[in-house]
Amino acid sequence: MDEKIDTLLKEGRVIQPTARTKAAAHIQDYDQAYKASIADPEAFWGGVAKELDWFSPWSKVLDWNYPWAKWFVGATCNIAYNCLDRHANTWRRNKVAIIWVGENGEERIFTYGELLRQVNRCANALKALGLQKGDRVTIYLPKIPEQVVAMLACARIGAIHSVVYSGFSAPALASRIQDAEARVVITADVGYDRGKTINLKGVVDDAVRTSPSVEKVVVVRRESPGVALAAPKEIDWVEWLQTQSAVCQAEALDAETPLYILYTSGTTGKPKGVVHVHGGYMVGTYITTKYVFDLKEEDVYFCVADPGWVTGHSYIVYGPLLNGATILMAEGKPDYPNPGRWWDLIARYGVSIFYTTPTAVRLLMKYGEDWPRKYDLSTLRILGSVGEPINPEAWEWFYRVTGSDKPIMDTWWQTETGSILVTPLPSVPLKPGSATRPFLGIEADVVDKEGNSLPNNAGGFAVIKKPWPSMMRTIYKDPDRYKVYWSTIPNCYTAGDVCRKDNDGYMWFMGRADDVIKVAGNRIGTAEVESALVSHEAVAEAAVIGKPHRTAGEAIKAFVILKQGYQDSKELVQSLKDHVLKELGKIAVPQEIDIVPSLPKTRSGKIMRRVLKAKELGQDVGDISTIED
Ligand code: WT7
């Protein structure tokens, strides 16, 4: 991490937008637009909201009862209506909405009209099962179009979707199904990962066994012969939709109706169910997609995220569809079957907007420049990065291999924020490694623990000073945990990131300030991994830290104290890794596990991860006066 911070601090380059980029941009003068938006944020957001369709108007843009926000008070709307009908009722009916490419090269194309019909069938099928407004549906699918269909179908009838990333294991899936008390689970027989078949149905079987709320399991069957289904609880997706009508009116919902729950990691072992709502979330994802990526009618938009994470929710599904964009959705990894995979897709489909992650860029960087050079990337116009800080080396490489004239939007945001909050716009001068400045209508700052603004270049906590439409409304079933975000530092929303602002007001995000780590951009709580380790029969205690990693940004390192009678061995360490894999999933498996005789603790018994980390990195351990041993 420190190496990363050092290079970030040394970084001084400024890259001006090309005349072409600037002339094309929706927002040509950021400073002026920003000032106007901040002078009257409610007028700004109200104006944005008017670009979308509402069934009935709001009486007030914002009702702010700290820390509880209601946006577009009294209005009714439906985000799925705005994603689909708003386009399908115009010439866009036959415009391509989604081009999907499977890992095996299979291609499926949905126009806005066809996507609407599919969503309507699915919405009617959900209704036929008795699903109603407010009921929860867990979606555990690989990156296939049915995922989008299922999400929008829930939204259409006012049901709440809870998408669980298909890399999570059965216990992790079960705890999310149970917390949400989902009535229906939608899954697939298998997913594909670098040519390997992943048995998703098996994971769901295990999870559902301990989840009494689940009445039905709908299965998308990709393999033939099809996996056996146990009727009447298990239903085949195709049969489920077949008999349903392709017409289904979108439910007129109060703007504050929950749209989805998305579980994310915090500082305790229990994931947090972040709740987003129809109205405000629709406004935030719509306008950020439009302005940040300068989206135009003829663009082909490619975001590499998985819909299992918030980037997939906001910037594969909702934001781009709200804008009537053509979206490329590709299953699989960037280097399978070879490291030309994404460059090939960009060339083949004429992608103009490409939104990816620093980890993927660093991975592709390892394979060398010859790969991107082989393909015609001239259709690219705007690039994006998200999920973790992008180091200037990776930034430079990405910029150079794509032609040195496509601006990179380094977008900073979180599951909780719903949409992008700090980011360049294409017309804004760039500094490699900086997410630049706040989006329109957003007041961001760097403060100390008491909430005082810090002078330029001092490191502190990133905060947001006013509510914004796409902010989470609560943590599902745990409002107190929601309140923490708005009470950790007085009078503002604390993001949990360390940041500094330079003399131009550019923000440099430097990683998490809490016990959350970002491994390949995936958010993992150290406490989650620790509790998985401790549930292994041989483990007495465990402590987990994030450690700098060349491609993944951070890697998981665990320190483990064994119970009496167990001995350090290669086999034991492997069985600990296998255990975490089984409990949580691949993304949470520690890269390194050290067996240790003791752990640094405070007198009250709290493990001092900070000390472990400093020692691991060979740094000064700082103040250890509270240490017990
Ligand atoms: C955390 C949120 C944002 C959607 C995907 C991740 C880190 C995110 C950046 C960026 C530096 C970033 C922060 C943040 N992060 N984007 N551009 N520069 N750090 O959402 O899983 O909720 O993670 O990701 O640490 O707090 P998430």
From TrEMBL:
Domain AMP-dependent synthetase/ligase per the UniProt entry, residue ranges: 85-474
Gene3D superfamilies xrefs: 3.30.300.30, N-terminal domain of ligase-like (3.40.50.12780)
GO molecular function terms listed in the Swiss-Prot or TrEMBL record: acetate-CoA ligase activity; AMP binding; ATP binding
Domain annotation AMP-binding enzyme C-terminal: ranges: 528-606
Keyword vocabulary terms for this entry: Acetylation, ATP-binding, Ligase, Nucleotide-binding
InterPro entries attached to this UniProt entry: Ac_CoA_lig, ACAS_N, AMP-bd_C, AMP-bd_C_sf, AMP-binding_CS, AMP-dep_synth/lig_dom, ANL_N_sf
A single Gene Ontology CC term: cytosol
Domain spans labelled Acetyl-coenzyme A synthetase N-terminal: 30-83
Top-level EC class: ligase
Pfam annotation, one family: AMP-binding
Gene Ontology biological-process annotations: acetyl-CoA biosynthetic process from acetate
EC number(s) from the headed UniProt entry: 6.2.1.1
Family: Belongs to the ATP-dependent AMP-binding enzyme family.
Name of the protein described by the UniProt record: Acetate--CoA ligase
UniProt source species: Nitrospira defluvii
Gene: acsA
